[in-house]
Structures are given as structure tokens and as C-alpha cells.
Amino acid sequence: MAVDDSSQTPTRLEGKFGANIICWILGIGSLICWNSLTSIDDYYYDVFPDYHPSRVLTCVYQPFAFGSMAFLAYNESKIDTRKRNIVGYIMFFFATFALILLDLATYGKGSIGSYIGICLFVAAFGIADALIQGGMIGDLALMCPEFIQSFLAGMAASGVITSGLRLLTEAIFNNYENGLHKGALLFLSISTLFEFLCIFLYAFIFTTLPIVKHYRTKAALEGSQTVSSDLNAAGIQTDLTLTQKLVDGDLGHLDRLSNKELLFQNFDYALDLFLIFALTLSIFPGFLYENTGKHQLGSWYPLVLVATFNFGDLVSRYIPLINCLKLESRKGLMILVFLRFLLVPAFYFTAKYGDQGWMIMLVSFLGLSNGYLGVCVLMAAPKGYKGPEQNALGNLLVLFLLGGIFLGAGLDWLWLIGNGSVLDQSAKEIVEYFAKSSYIDVL
């Protein structure tokens, strides 16, 4: 494919609609495995009632996601984006399939050995998350903002899909023997198949779309090395063109800001994402499962709360597509992010004194503000930069996003203050189990 003038935006953006759809599906694939786990938390609470599955699995997931993302963000310019994303989706595929095999092998019994096995596969989820989120957002940042919005909307859609399926399986399997177990296996099976679809779409379809080829060619001519494999897969060779520009002394287009300079210029955006997701994960999902009490909805209550959050998160991620509702003021974003912390006392007093209607309203607002503010930041930040800088900035912003999630997962445990007997009892039971069991029994 010959590209005569890659510095200009094409007048006809062939394949834009298809690229938006694929970005949406890839966004679903980046979180459907994790959302499946959060949606079947009631199953894990039934199997492991004393081990706080919602909180523990989140705390296992996040250090691996954040640590991997820190390494990837530091080395982003040397890492091939195509290989990175494909490896991430493959890891999700095999880790989810392994969870199914582990559950079948242990017959759904809650031994400490199977719990440790689940934690190991969840750690693999964290690594895959860092590979895909940073890789995809960095890659889409050098294209048009609508692609980032579609990817982020897909991430939220994965939560809505899994919540809807969870409510459906609760209605279908509730009166069946081992209904929770069957529903959990169904969730994991769907997630496994979906990851396989994402591998196929990204590897063979997305890279061949004309608009995607255009933006990646433009990034390559600006000095980006992360798109080389994608261009080769699409049958595009830019080496000769780039070499000729080097010979002619046209080096200005290859100059780029360092990661430190990019972070300095966009620190407010990075802080916004950090605080947005730190607050969200300090409440969702652990607080919703363990600290909201019992109400008329019974076992449906936490499922309804999770579904409410996911639906609000999804709807709000489409609001920035309406120009008059898109917030681009950096000061305005920062003010709203800080005002959002008023939700902490609101959740505390509602859980203690309010009824389920007020809690559902609060959870809805938590989801709406999370999705809206996150999309506004990630759509606005990459504007005005060259392709390599946009890719680097996308990785840096995802690093702060995952850092916020990591902190939020830790802060989520603070809701247990005042309920120390639960923690003490859990620790005591684990110690007694090891004392009574041989090494072989534990495994």
C-alpha cells in the first residue's frame, strides 16, 4: 500500500465504523474475565465463606497489574504493541480456561489449595490487564479520540453484560442443586470464548482496516517503533520512506518529549485518573458485597448493586460523545474529581442508616461519575502530541489509573474497621487448617 502523504488526515475515513465496533469488542475482552469473577463473587463466598474472596482477589489482581504496567510504561517505546496485545488476550484466554479446569478438578470444594490456585490465575489476569490496557489505550491514543471512547465503553459494557448474565443465572439456577456452581462455570466458559474472539479480531481484522493503517503509518513516519509489526501484518512497508527522510536531514519529526516531560505536562490528568479509580475501587465491589447489610432483596441485593454500578458506568462513557456535555476544562475536571470524595461519608451513613433505595441511587452516581470523568480525561489528554508521544502518554495515564485501582483495593479493607472479629476469626481458621492438615492434604 502506497501512502503519498501520511501527515494529512484522509478525507474519507474508510473503516471508521468497523474500527469503533472492534474497539468496543476489544474493550469488553479486556475486562470480561475480571468482571466475570466479580459477578460470581457470591459463588466464591459460598465456597470460601471465611476468606473474603471479593477483597482478597482484588488485592491479588492489582499488584500484578500495577507492577507489570510500571515496567511496560517505562519501556513502552521498545515494546511491539501488536505482540503485547495479542499476548495479553492469550493470557486471559488460558487463565480463564484454567479456572474452569481447576473448578472441575476440585468439584467446587473450598480447600485452601484451590483458593491459592484461583489467586495464581487471578495474578495472571493482572499481568494480562496491564499488557492490554496500556497497549490498547497507547495504540488508540495515536488515532482518533472516538476509538478510545469505544474501547472504554466496551470495558464498561463487559460489566453490564456480566451483571445481566448473573441476574439471569440467578433466576434460572436458583432453584437447582449446585445452581451457583453451574452459573459460575457458564460465566467462565463465556469469558473464555470471548477472549478467543478478541484474539482473532485484533490479530486478523483490526490491523487491516484502512483508517487504522493510516494512523499507524503516520505514527511510524513520526518515529514510532511500536507499530512496526502491525504495519507488516497489514502489508505496509515504511522503511524506505523513513530512510529517505533521514537521508534528507528531515529529523525534526522524530523529536519527541521524554516520559518525564510528558508526565510533567499532564500531571493533573494523571492525578485525576488516580483519584477517580482509587475512590471507585475503595467502594466497588468489596463494600457492596460485605458492608451494605441485609435488605428486602435478600441474595439479589449485591447483584443489583453491582449491575446498577456497571449500567451507570456504561451510560456515562457515551456522554462525552455529545460535544456540549463533554468536559475539557482541566480545572473543571479536577474540581469534580475532588468533590466526588463526598461519596465516602455518603456511603457510610447510607449503609448504616439508609434503606436500599438510597444505596442504589448512590451506587448509580458512583458508576456515572466514574465512567464520565475517566473518558473525558483519556479523550482530552493525547491531543496535540505526535504518535510516539501519544502512545507513551497513554501508557503513563494507564499506569496512574491502575495505581489508583491498586490503592483503592487496599483502602477497601478500611470498611472492615470496627468488625475486627471477622478478620481474627478468618486468620484463626487458616492457622488451624494448616496445623491439622499435612502438606499433601493442603495441595
Automatic annotation (TrEMBL):
Annotated membrane topology: Multi-pass membrane protein
Main location: membrane
A GO term from the CC aspect: plasma membrane
Protein name: Equilibrative nucleoside transporter
PANTHER family reported for this sequence: EQUILIBRATIVE NUCLEOSIDE TRANSPORTER
Keyword list, A-Z: Membrane, Transmembrane, Transmembrane helix, Transport
Higher taxonomy: Eukaryota, Viridiplantae, Streptophyta, Embryophyta, Tracheophyta
Family under the similarity heading: Belongs to the SLC29A/ENT transporter (TC 2.A.57) family.
GO MF annotations, alphabetized: nucleoside transmembrane transporter activity
Subcellular location: Membrane
Keyword match Transmembrane: yes
Organism the protein comes from: Lactuca virosa
The keyword rRNA-binding is annotated on this UniProt entry: no
Residues annotated as transmembrane: 21-40, 52-74, 86-106, 112-132, 144-165, 185-209, 269-288, 300-320, 332-351, 357-381, 393-416
